[in-house]
Amino acid sequence: MSHPRILGIGTANPPVRLTQEQTFHAAGYHGERLRKIFLNSGIDYRHFYLEGPLNREENSDQLNQRYLRGAMKTGCHAILNCVNSARTTVQDVDFLAVCSCTGYVCPDVGSRLIAHMGFSNSVQRASIAGLGCAGALPALQRAVDFVRANPGRQALMLAVEICSACYYVDNTLETVVGNAICADGAAAFLLTAGPQGKRKYPQIIDFQTFIDTEQIEQVGLQHRDGKLRIVLGASIQHLAGPMIETALQQLLQRHGLCRSRIRFWVVHPGGRKVIDNVQKHFAMEDAQLRFSRTVLRNYGNMSSPTVMFVLEEVVRSGDPRPGDFGVMIALGPGMAAEVALLRW
User: Does the model's pTM come out above 0.90?
Assistant: First the structure.
């Protein structure tokens, strides 16, 4: 069976690039204890869509308007980088899926991008909202479903987040941690199904989800004072390994694989402690998570696009070869572990 394959990958970040020290001061935090949270995060730089200095007095309308402008600009750049890498154009795209959770607009970001970028008037759409850091994999699955049902046609999926539009400041440790790791960014994949060409990018073989509904309130976004506030339960870092293992076991068993067959671990870097606990749980070597740590260090946690940045880093510097297996892994609200099996 011919599996859907990725034809192109594109990523993009807003132009404002800040060090952790700069972000700490811009957010108005004080004290060595809070400063250490920023500086010990495993992050060197983050990008933000800001229209001037960080304004801690933005109201909910201003935050959502900035989300829309940032999502449009950053998402447009990611899409252009993606189709250019595949040597095609947006007019050749038959299906567009967009996932985002850091703002809400109607018409959705995808429809606005179709109008702005000149997609075909007949392009089909899907908008996937509210799945947080795990949103890229369900969006990828919808794109895979489309090209499987329509061989020879092309699907593009975009994950775009402006986490700075959820930059809520209070005195809780939870929001300090969220503000110390989250950033803005976008990533796009272009897919098709049919005859296989060069395999710079992998095939998408299968997906598996595990949802622990008892932990539904542990991670996500909540409305407070009319604004979005990041929720990061302290238990997330300890739940990650067992949840991923549950989903991963089912996926690998279905394909007669064991973990030793997986060469590339494309793990969403939700934070340094999350990666540390995943590494410990699976007894991984440092090299197996180097791509995730590189993305975290250079970009922070951009929510849904981040795992796509990790796959781009694998392709760029991992030297994947025909026959190599990889798994993409992300955790998000629900609480859910999402896993995809890849093969070059």
Answer: yes
Residue 197 has pLDDT above 60, yes or no: no
User: Is the Cβ–Cβ distance between 202 and 342 less than 8 Å?
Assistant: yes
Q: Which of 146, 163, 192 is the last residue of a domain?
A: 192
Residues linked to residue 127 through DSSP beta bridges, in sequence order: 98
In the block, residue with structure tokens 């969403």: 268
Q: Between the CA of residue 169 and those of 165, 179, 227, what are the distances in Å?
A: 12, 8, 10
One domain, residues 245 and 139: no
Q: Looking at the structure, do residues 89 and 222 belong to the same domain, yes or no?
A: no
- Residues 97-148 have pLDDT tens digits of 999 999 999 999 999 999 999 999 999 999 999 999 999 999 999 999 999 9
Q: What is the DSSP track for 210-249?
A: EE-GGGTTSEEEEEETTEEEEEE-TTHHHHHHHHHHHHHH
Residue 334 confidence (pLDDT): 85
Give which of 104, 13, 14 is closest to 50, Cα–Cα. 14
Residue 31 domain boundaries: 5-192
What's 261's DSSP letter? G
Rounded Cα distance, 163 and 74, in Å: 12
Q: What is the DSSP letter of 344?
A: -
Mean predicted confidence (pLDDT) in 72-84: 98
